[in-house]
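Researcher: I'm preparing a figure for a lab meeting and need a structural model of a single chain. I don't have an experimental structure, so a prediction will have to do for now. The sequence is pasted below. Please return the structure as tokens so I can convert it later.
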Amino acid sequence: MKDNSKQGKIVDTEISIHPSMEDRISKFQKECLVEEAEALPPIKEGEVDVNTDFIFDLGDKYEVSVFIRNGLPKPVNLEKIPFKVVNKKEEVLGSKIFDLREMGQIPPRTVRPWKVYFDKEDIKLGENDLKDLRIIFDTRLKAERTINVTFENLPLGIKGEHRRKYEKFLQSLPLLRLGQVSMTAYKVEKTKDDGIAVEVVIRNGRANGIDVERIPLSIYDSKENLVASGIFYLKDVKVSPFKARIYSFTFSKDELIREDIRLNEWRVDFRLNKNISAGDEVGHEK
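Model: Understood. Here is the structure written out token by token.
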């Protein structure tokens, strides 16, 4: 992928580890990734490219480790990207379209390590050796216009690791398209009064602020049993353009449908359960 408005100058790129991987790789692994990224061929300003690190045969599929570099002076987000597999003669042995939204936003002038998987039937290996194969972008490469939002309502008293957890969670969420609004549950826990509190992150990808007037919530436990369901009617709740806000919604003990609650695993659905009446306001928000 190329941006022809500014091209030709060689740019230096730094490693960019996805936030969800930061705590899962060792210092040694990161140092190895840095060394491998530094050994990649030069990239020019205005280019986005992919380089193959290795291809493993996992038995039923191929694991491909790649480096995707962003030579643009702005972040880039990749969505449905066609990759082609070629050999030393540049012959195409296979292709597949990957959804790379989980890669998140790749900062300017950085290189992001990632892994993709090809099924065996996707690649006609023949007499070719895996070490001689590489992955290239198809000419249909598409970058989507997405928005990077930041919190606007985290209290100043939230500092250190507690604050970083909120910000890390926000960065790990799926990409937010321009014009999109999303709601995601951050945490579900019991209250001191044996009720249940749900923390929800609301993201606004629109160029104008939004008013949030009602939020239906249904909570299910680890066995998919309905725990609570209702609609929260809100007053004066606004989310600014390209911002995120976090709110806590609480069901009291009397509003819970069952008492034998298992919240070691949970699921929040932003719909009213079909067996629940929509007439009454429930709980409270803050």
